[in-house]
Amino acid sequence: MSSTFGIRRMARYVTVAAVLFAAGCTPIYQNHGYVPTETDLAKIEVGKSSREEVSAVIGRPSSMGVLQGAGWFYVGSRWKHYGARAPQEIDRQVVAISFDDKGTVENVERFGMERGEVVVLSRRVTKSNIKGLGLVRELLGSFGRVSAGKLLDN
User: Fold this and answer.
1) Residue 126 contacts residue 72 (beta carbons within 8 Å)
2) 20 pLDDT exceeds 90?
3) What is the pLDDT of residues 29-54, one digit of tens each?
4) For the chain, what is the mean pLDDT?
5) What distances in angstroms separate CA 85 from CA 75, 80, 144, 150, one per listed residue?
6) E strands of 48-133, at which residues?
7) What are the residues facing 76 on neighbouring strands?
8) Which one in 6, 71, 84, 105 has a CA-CA gap of 20 to 30 Å to 15?
9) Does residue 83 contact residue 145 with C-beta atoms inside 8 Å?
10) What is the CB neighbour count within 10 angstroms for residue 89?
11) Which helix (H) or strand (E) holds 32?
12) pLDDT reading at 93 higher than 70
């Protein structure tokens, strides 16, 4: 009778260990930052919406251009955590909204990463002069250089 009890106990331990091992190997995905949806961006009219209207519709951004009127930048990224491996950034998007001198929306653009290169996913502009592209390239250019630990410490 005691050997049957010992076999059952061992089977429970093996089962618990297998479940814990499988759980440790399951990828966990985390999103950082905020990027407005296309539905929210559709409410913003290029050449008509003001800074206050943009703030009311999609909120204030996490990043702003250094120069006055340079623009607002909404940055979001998706990280994959897999077991004991270092976290890996699998997606990053930036929405850039620039304003003219009067505070009216001039450009609305969405950038993403495609094979490590910055690509324009959508663009609504009033003229071809795109402000803040250097900052967008800088934000997306650091793809993979920022660790999730650094993001969580902030």
Assistant:
1) no
2) no
3) 898 888 999 999 999 999 999 989 99
4) 76
5) 25, 10, 14, 16
6) 63-64, 72-81, 88-99, 105-114, 117-125
7) 33, 93
8) 84
9) no
10) 19
11) strand 28-33
12) yes
